[in-house]
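## retry 2 of 3
previous attempt timed out at serialization; input unchanged, resubmitting
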Amino acid sequence: MLLLRLLMRQCRAKAGLEAFETCRLLWHGPREAVQDYADALLRILGTSLPKGPLIHDLRAEERSFDEEWLLARSGALQHDDHCSATFLLRARLLLYLRRPVGWLAAELVQRMDAMTERNHIK
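## retry succeeded, writing output
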């Protein structure tokens, strides 16, 4: 949770992005850093969700609904639970946004897992 909040905090002030253009740019540069995927995901969610995602400060003890949703999606992906991951996308996003957001979230989870393993972060 802390890593997710840290990544999301660093991209709050950036403008929203068009989903397909973002994925196209990141697809051609698969070695992009975890921060680039977090930026892209948060910026797309900022334009996709009615009020944008609510990400609390690093020190906050409670989690927002959006944080819980992102963590549930990440957990489903980590456990290869594709049914739950798909359900979570369908529950909140319009049809045309599900694929790019799903792809960005999956790429972010992979990079976060690799980052935590490399740096022994929990």
